[in-house]
């Protein structure tokens, strides 16, 4: 078997889950002909207590531990330190698998060249373990985008679902944090910024390889009351935080905001922490993908899936090669915004 040295950046929820899943799938990698070996995991605090199943793992805050890695899983949050670590490995010619949608959205200028040459894998950065990046970079690329709508925050979807059941916003948020869906503080989640990061990644896969994060319009769910959410349900509607990429005059517009949907709308069917993506292309028509969109193990499943793809010879995820022409005479779906 070929020895495969894996470096990991980050030992939080996703990093710990990735370690556990790597151990569970060890036999699969052996069947593929690879003997896994872990470098010490690069973390901010090596002394922090973590729970995972991979035996004899060590932790370090020294970036030098990545030098012997053949491939690196970048699972640390933030946009500064993790970018520094990623660029060091990318410049050395190593492939990177990342779940960090913020660094992809906000530091794309530095990462785009490595995405274009196939070094970057980031299926787990959008909708966790539900595959959307791969299809948008592959099968669906034969279609020009007409519109895209998506529920991208499993955290917000969970909170809104609990509010429908009568929970207050504050209680639903605490539940989401206890389950590991929401961060502490939760501003990125409930403010809509986490969904905006993901929508920006999707925009670069579907309409514009250089779509700027600053162009996104963002509104979260902090100001919503349980009464507002429950009134919508009584009227045969549902409140959801939806991200949309739609034609707007001669350019593409991307925005995240709470909207009111008919209860039978495909996006309204996403319950609890699940996510949904609706893609409408000129050749393929409407495609709907739904699945788990929050949680460490769900996200780790896409991380390890990208690793399996890489070992099978599949290239990393590449942005759309050019700006998609804004469709003439097409009217995107319009939702009632709150």
What does this structure look like?
- The protein is an alpha/beta fold and 338 residues long.
- It folds into two domains: 2-130 and 296-311, NAD(P)-binding Rossmann-like Domain (Rossmann fold, 3-Layer(aba) Sandwich), CATH 3.40.50; 134-292 and 326-337, 2-Layer Sandwich (Dihydrodipicolinate Reductase, domain 2).
- Helix content is 33%, strand content 23%.
- It has helices spanning 13-24, 26-31, 81-91, 101-106, 108-116, 133-137, 154-164, 169-178, 187-190, 193-206, 226-234, 296-311, and strands at residues 2-9, 34-38, 41-42, 59-60, 71-74, 96-98, 120-121, 145-151, 217-218, 237-248, 251-262, 274-281, 285-292, 336-337.
- The strands form three sheets. Strands 8, 9, 10, 11, 12, 13 and 14 form a seven-stranded mixed sheet that branches. A five-stranded parallel sheet has the order 2-1-5-6-7, with helices on both faces. A two-stranded parallel sheet has the order 3-4.
- α1 (13-24) crosses α12 and α7 (154-164) crosses α8.
- The protein starts with a strand and ends with a strand.
CATH architecture of the largest domain: 2-Layer Sandwich
Order of helices and strands: EHHEEEEHEHHEHEHHHHEHEEEEHE
Overall mean pLDDT stands at: 95
Provide the structure class.
alpha/beta
Please report which band the strand proportion falls in: under 5%, 5-15%, 15-25%, 25-35%, 35-45% or over 45%: 15-25%
Largest sheet: 7 strands, mixed
Number of separate domains: 2
Overall shape: globular
CATH topology label of the largest domain: Dihydrodipicolinate Reductase, domain 2
């Amino acid at each position: 078997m070929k020895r495969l040295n894996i470096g990991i950046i980050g030992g939080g929820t996703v990093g710990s889950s990735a370690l556990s899943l790597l151990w569970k799938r060890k036999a699969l990698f052996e069947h593929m002909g690879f003997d896994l070996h872990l470098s010490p995991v690069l973390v901010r605090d090596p002394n922090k207590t973590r729970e995972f199943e991979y035996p004899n793992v060590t932790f370090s805050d020294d970036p030098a531990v990545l030098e012997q890695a053949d491939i690196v899983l970048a699972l640390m949050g933030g946009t500064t330190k993790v970018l520094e670590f990623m660029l060091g490995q990318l410049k050395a010619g190593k492939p990177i698998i990342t779940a960090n949608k913020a660094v992809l959205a906000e530091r794309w200028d530095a990462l785009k060249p490595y995405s274009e040459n196939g070094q970057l894998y980031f299926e787990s950065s959008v909708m966790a373990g539900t595959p959307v990046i791969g299809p948008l970079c592959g099968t669906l690329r034969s279609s020009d985008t007409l519109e895209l709508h998506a529920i991208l925050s499993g955290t917000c979807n969970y909170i809104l679902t609990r509010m429908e059941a009568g929970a207050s916003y504050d209680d639903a948020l605490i539940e989401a944090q206890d389950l590991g869906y929401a961060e502490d503080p939760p501003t990125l989640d409930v403010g809509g910024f986490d969904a905006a990061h993901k929508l920006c990644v999707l925009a670069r896969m579907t309409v514009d390889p250089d779509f700027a994060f600053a162009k996104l319009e963002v509104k979260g769910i902090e100001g919503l009351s349980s009464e507002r959410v429950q009134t919508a349900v009584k009227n045969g509607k549902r409140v959801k935080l939806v991200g949309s990429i739609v034609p707007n005059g001669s350019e593409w517009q991307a925005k995240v905001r709470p909207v009111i949907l008919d209860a039978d709308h495909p996006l309204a069917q996403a319950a609890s922490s699940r996510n949904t993506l609706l893609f409408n292309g000129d050749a393929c028509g409407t495609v709907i993908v739904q699945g788990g969109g929050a949680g460490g193990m769900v996200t780790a499943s896409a991380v390890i899936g990208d690793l399996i793809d890489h070992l099978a010879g599949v290239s990393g995820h590449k942005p759309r090669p050019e700006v998609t022409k804004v469709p003439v005479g097409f009217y995107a779906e319009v939702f009632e915004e709150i």
